[in-house]
Known about the structure:
Number of helices: 13
Strand content: 15-25%
Mean pLDDT: 88
Low-confidence stretches: 1-28, 62-75
Strand order of the largest sheet: 3-2-1-18
Amino acid sequence: MVLLDTYQKYTFKDKWKLTQNLHTLKTAAVSIAMQGFYKLALLSGNKLKSKIWTIFITLLMSVMTTNSQANETTYKTKRVPAEWERQEAIWMQWPGYWEKDYEITFAKISEIISRYEKLNILYDSKQIYEDAQKAIRDIEADPNNKNIYWHKVPNDNAWMRDNGPVYVIDNNELRIQNWNFDAWGGAFGSDISFKLDNTIPDKVGEILGLPVDHIDIVHERGNLEFNGSDAVILNWSTIGDTNRNLNYNKQQAEIDLKKHFGVTKVIFIEGIPDGDLTKGHIDGIARFIGLRTVVVVECTTQSLCQPGSKDAKIYDKAAEIISKAGFQIKREPIEGFVQYNDQMFDTNYMNWLVGNGFVIVPGFGNPETDIAAKSRIESYFPNRNVYLIEMLSSWAAGGGVHCHTNDQPFFPISK
């Protein structure tokens, strides 16, 4: 138990080196023993020689197993860190002219994040920069906080979760992946620009001095949920959308995801909740809160999506699939709904953001359900401060705080 506790205190980098050294030591010891038994077998009688050869073959198999384990360890060193692991920073693209409704929400998000860690904000123009600074000052916060870094980088929208980088630790190196982005398969209209957004991972790579790998598959980071180890959960209805990837199948997707993320478990759920133009991003349906624990949303008699409805069946089936894959399930109930302008929304709080010491949750301006949700999410993340920000303007456009942000894991970078 003491050895296990000590091992767990190592960084990922140290664990990898320690594991490799243990495999090397075991291989060397077995090899020396094999040499001794081989020499002894040559000098012995037939009866003893038979026993010695049996031991020799056993040791040979041990070396082969050791090498196989070493190869598996090398494979597992490619991973995408979980969101609850230590972060270096969080990134956002500040909303432009067509997304001004989110500005106060962005200011409030920025103020909370900058209390705990670095916040990198991309802005498209001088005017947007000045508007952003004013919005933060309007909530009596400091836009020049030492934790806020501003970068003039042309972009198209304020949803950096989806077009931003996927960070991967590969062979003890932090790398960025740039998956193709086409504005959610054109679901929000053919006039939605996305070419600048498709270059954002490259621009972030330049700022950070990180290598960027281009993945020729259309997909969004908001449809990827990692446990930081061996598993990724995603909605097949998104990545399998023919407006994103024509003639793409699950078998090929599983091969690709294992290759690019180093996971051994690819868990596909399926189904598009009513009104979800992303075609069912996983960050509104199922979220890891621990290595083996997943929270899955659940319809109730108080929600617009009633038990037994199409949406309820999507969520219940997701819980079943994830449970069968070997994970513990917690259900996050939808306990009400709200009206915003001419739209009605279930109070689905799943689109939370986890950072260093905090969680930000999208609020719905409904005190009864907001307070209950805050309490539940505090139980999911007992060592973090939980904040609710009313962001119905964002929700009406298709997302929440998780969709607006992109987290960069902590990893030493040498420039």
